[in-house]
């Protein structure tokens, strides 16, 4: 019977829903135990992720139902509105419950396959007839499995396309995608700098005299100091590239003007008007972009208290060294 459901059986074993070995884990070798543990962990993570998604959709379904029924300005039937969101909830719970039940009874899968094989032997005593029946059943099982995957994948893609068309166009500047970053930058830099100051004070007033303690403390200063300096260099580079962009655009506009001037001298009057119009359009576009880059400089900041520039990185090192000298 395993040959009939070979594709489904393999897929479920790869994600850990079914045991990969029919024997008990206690009698398996060490590599087999490790593999079983990894697949078991994958199955648990899959079920937990599905449970979280299903719970979220269920809470959202109840929230929509309660809000719709409690809003006096809402003239829509709350039951109908709740039923509109019901598929998002039931679809998640459908997969979760089926996989969870199969995972819960995973050790009974082998018994079920053996029982099915005995049943087939009883119904088809002739070996040739039994092989023919299993061959046709295997074709149907593979066809239905592939068909189910294709249909559901196409449905998922269609769902994403339909719902994404109604979403508001959100970019990194119009939305709140990068909103948590400034506060995170401030907290990370502040804690790293305080850590560096603490280890610097330890270097100055180290109660221990062994070399190992100094290696540990100085190594800690270098590590956390790199977080506040070396790891910030990509952010500084973005700022410097943004500053240089307007300068490059200015040179581009000048180069276009020079090319147009040379072409006007070499070519005849017939193409002069067309070239002048196109050249003017290009120059105006470049100059508008240059003005925009001058006004809107790309710079990373930490709640407007810290701006990541080259001077800030140098100032961090200078401040730390000054603290060590003064404390000394």
Notes on the structure:
With 328 residues, this protein is mostly helical. The chain folds into 2 domains: 6-123; 181-327, no CATH class. Helices cover 76% and strands 1% of the residues. The chain has helices spanning 6-14, 30-70, 78-104, 109-123, 127-165, 181-204, 211-228, 233-266, 272-295, 310-327, and strands at 301-302, 306-307. It has a two-stranded antiparallel sheet with strand order 1-2. It is extended and about 90 Å long. It starts with 5 loop residues before the first helix and ends with a helix. 5% of the residues are buried.
Which runs of at least 5 residues are low in confidence (pLDDT < 50)? none
User: Number of helical segments?
Assistant: 10
The profile of the biggest β sheet is:
2 strands, antiparallel
Shape: extended
Radius of gyration computed on alpha carbons: 34 Å
């Amino acid at each position: 019977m395993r040959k009939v459901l070979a594709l489904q059986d393999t897929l479920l074993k790869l994600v850990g829903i079914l045991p990969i070995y029919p024997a008990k884990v206690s009698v398996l070798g060490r590599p087999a135990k490790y593999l079983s543990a990894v697949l078991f962990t994958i199955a648990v993570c899959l079920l937990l992720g599905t449970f979280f998604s299903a719970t979220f959709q269920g809470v959202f379904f109840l929230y929509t139902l309660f809000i719709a029924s409690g809003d006096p300005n809402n003239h829509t039937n709350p039951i109908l509105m709740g039923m509109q969101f019901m598929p998002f909830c039931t679809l998640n719970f459908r997969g979760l419950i089926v996989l969870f039940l199969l995972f819960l009874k995973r050790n009974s899968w082998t018994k079920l396959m053996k029982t099915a094989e005995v049943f087939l032997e009883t119904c088809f005593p002739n070996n040739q007839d039994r092989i023919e029946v299993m061959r046709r059943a295997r074709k149907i099982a593979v066809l239905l499995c592939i068909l189910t995957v294709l249909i559901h994948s196409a449905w998922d893609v269609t769902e994403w396309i339909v719902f994404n068309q109604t979403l508001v166009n959100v970019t990194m500047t119009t939305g709140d995608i990068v909103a948590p970053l400034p506060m995170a930058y401030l907290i990370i830099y502040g804690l790293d700098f305080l850590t560096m100051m603490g280890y610097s004070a330890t270097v100055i007033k180290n109660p221990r005299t062994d070399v190992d303690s100094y290696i540990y403390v100085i190594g800690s200063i270098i590590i956390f100091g790199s977080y506040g300096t070396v790891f910030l260099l990509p952010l500084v580079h973005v700022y410097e590239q943004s500053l240089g962009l307007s300068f490059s655009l200015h040179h581009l506009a000048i180069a276009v003007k020079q090319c147009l001037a040379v072409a006007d001298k070499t070519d005849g009057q017939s193409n002069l008007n067309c070239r002048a119009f196109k050249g003017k359009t290009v120059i105006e576009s470049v100059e508008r972009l240059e003005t925009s880059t001058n006004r809107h400089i790309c710079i990373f900041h930490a709640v407007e208290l810290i701006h990541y520039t080259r001077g800030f990185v140098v100032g961090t090192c200078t401040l730390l060294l000054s603290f060590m000298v003064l404390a000394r």
